[in-house]
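Posted in: Protein Modeling Q&A

I'm a second-year student putting together a small comparison for a lab meeting, and my supervisor asked me to include a predicted structure for Acetate operon repressor. I've never done this before, so apologies if this is the wrong subforum. The sequence is pasted below exactly as I got it from our records. If anyone can share the structure token output, I'd also love a short note on what stands out.
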Amino acid sequence: MRAFRGNGRPTLAELARAVDLPHATVLRFLQTLEEEGYAAREDSRWRLTPLVFELGFAAMESLGVTDAVQEILQNLADAYSGTSNLGEANPEGVIIIGRAMAPAERRRLVVMNLRVGSVLPPASALAGGLRLGPGEWTRFDYPDSNQVSVAVPVPQAGSRLLSVGISVAAPEVAGNRLEADMVPALQQAAQTIAGVIRVGVV
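Accepted answer (user: helix_wrangler)
Welcome! Here is the predicted structure, written out as tokens:
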């Protein structure tokens, strides 16, 4: 299913090349997905159907990204006119498992191509926040886009390493707003998210 990224309507041959499997094997997979309603054939091309979204919502629920967690992320994004992310440790850094954007961010023409499922490198603020202790926070500046990212750890999330962060335009952190306002708000959000995840489905 990942092979559909970047090519929304591939042919059987294109999919077989992308996943490096024989045509017959890929066709069997596609026919199974078609029978279950997750894929559809249009002439010689295949596409995923909206039913695939159910898998994404189920995956997010199993990760503890409930409506309550999403609301916390949205409130953060709205309060600071930025983008908030919930991340989980990944061998390559941190994977975004929850994300919310303020309306102003949605309208920006220059936005990093990030979404739920994107992996950020170890040098990012979200990855740096994973292994911090209580009360600690990390910051990463992106001068090219005039953005600042700040992240804190999500405490007591069991065996999981989670962090929550927000990226905002640099003017949003002018003065002492970062230390006096944003970091405490992030820490409070992290505590609340930890509580939701502990009593949730995870």
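A couple of things worth pointing out for your meeting: Helices lie at 12-19, 23-35, 52-62, 67-79, 103-107, 125-128, 177-199. The radius of gyration is 19 Å.
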